[in-house]
Design goal:
Layout: H1 15-31, E1 38-40, H2 45-51, E2 57-60, E3 64-65, E4 68-70, E5 75-78, E6 83-85, E7 93-95, E8 101-103, E9 106-108, H3 114-123, H4 125-128, E10 137-141, E11 147-149, E12 152-154, E13 158-163, E14 169-171, E15 174-176, E16 180-185, E17 191-193, E18 196-198, E19 203-208, E20 214-216, E21 219-221, E22 226-231, E23 237-239, E24 242-244, E25 248-253, E26 259-261, E27 264-266, E28 270-275, E29 281-283, E30 286-288, E31 301-306, E32 313-315, E33 318-320, E34 324-329, E35 336-338, E36 341-343, E37 347-352, E38 355-360, E39 363-365, E40 369-374, E41 377-379, E42 387-388, E43 406-407, E44 416-417, H5 432-442, H6 448-451, E45 455-458, E46 461-464
Parallel strand pairs: 1-2, 2-5, 3-6, 4-7, 5-8, 6-9, 7-10, 8-11, 9-12, 10-13, 11-14, 12-15, 13-16, 14-17, 15-18, 16-19, 17-20, 18-21, 19-22, 20-23, 21-24, 22-25, 23-26, 24-27, 25-28, 26-29, 27-30, 28-31, 29-32, 30-33, 31-34, 32-35, 33-36, 34-37, 35-38, 36-39, 37-40, 38-41, 39-42
Antiparallel strand pairs: 43-44, 45-46
Length: 483
Amino acid sequence: MKWPWSSLACGTSGTDIRTGLLLSLLALAMISSATASTLQAGTDVQAAIDKAISGDTIIVGPGQYNPFEVDKPLRIVGVGWPVVQATVQTPGITISADSTLVFGFKIKGVPEDSTSKFDYYMQHPATTALRLNLPNAGIIVQGNDVAIQNVALSGAQVGVYADDAVNLSVVNDTFDRCGTGAQLLNCRTGRISNCRLSGCDKSGIDVEHSSGTKAENNSVSNTSNTGILLKESASCSVSNNTASGNKEGIVLWNSTFTDVSRNRVDHSYYGILASGSNNNTILDNVAEDNRRNEIIEGFGIGISLQENSSHNILARNTASRSFNGLELIRGCSYNVVYSNNATDNTHGIRVDKNYNNLIYHNNFVRNTISAYDNSTHNFWNASVGNYYSDYRGTDGDGDGVGDQPYVIPMGNTKSVDARPLIKPCSTAFLNMDELKMALLKYARYDPEEENNAPYRRTGSMIVIGSKRPTSPPEWPDSVPLFS
């Protein structure tokens, strides 16, 4: 069932926007069903919910309220920012029904506290034996087609917690000083948009084992760990977000078929990080000023592919004023790095212990070292190569391609770009199929350990084995950065 509010436009902030949404909700409540009613909650929201019928709208005025559970399809609309105080293992609001809307509340949460949680369970053993795994949440969602809009959550272990929910919509909400802002586990087609998340201890947005989730137009700042985390998830979209001052801005961890596009990340150790993640598109992002001093002076990475991340397209991004603008580290293969701008970094791009990545049509401008290629076998040009601002070759025939190859200046691989560009390049239109075809055409190195089948003789028998690893390799430490 799809409720009328699912198509409402969402604003980011402002009294006028919120008032307009509230008036629209109240108007819809009056016309959406001949049998539905609009009720005033009084001082006891739970009592009003118990009396309501499916489809009703309950109006909650200003004041302080006890936690309550929505166990039938209702609209619970706060006017004047009513406040709900959660307690240990009792969320401010529990939503256990499908097709429910919660709008316009302030939820004061409870932080993670193992001692208080243990004491609670010792005092309530009969009623809570099956709830040991639930966090102290501001709102817990246990239904489908649920919308949480214009809600301000603060101080909770988890602001909004959902497990196995379909079509959850978290829109125009604020999360302040929560352990984790919004956490979606085993969810499908969820949406987190136009939210502001700040000061979280773990992650602003945490999506795990989920599919089809969209995180868009959010602002995530000053988290102690990750701004936006997608872990073991697939077919998601992370777009038009701003992540600033987090330990990591946006992270894909063992995630696939996800689009990360048009985000802005800054002042993190890692702006955008993909680890063990395949078949993703990282496109049109801006990663700048990713330098932090708390661990290593001036260390920070703009955009990083790590730990066997393969078959990804990294295109038309800007990475500037970081230690490594772009990097591919440890076992990454069959990635296309195309039409990116790496500017004013210590290393424009650092590639270490990978093979069969195609790196071409990028601009490396005013970096201390344009490129670093170590213990790898990658390809630095297709029909054309890259532009390097420190290239000093000539272009005798005027075709825009240097007559002399560009030798990758750092690393032990002795790689070259055979067709360096004389002028910076740009790309207005991307053809993903052409990029994949270029990868197949130019990146064609077969590692020796994948081609040869070693054998040994045992008595009169020949036993044939395989060198293909059955688990991820353990890489030795890289050589010094400036060796």
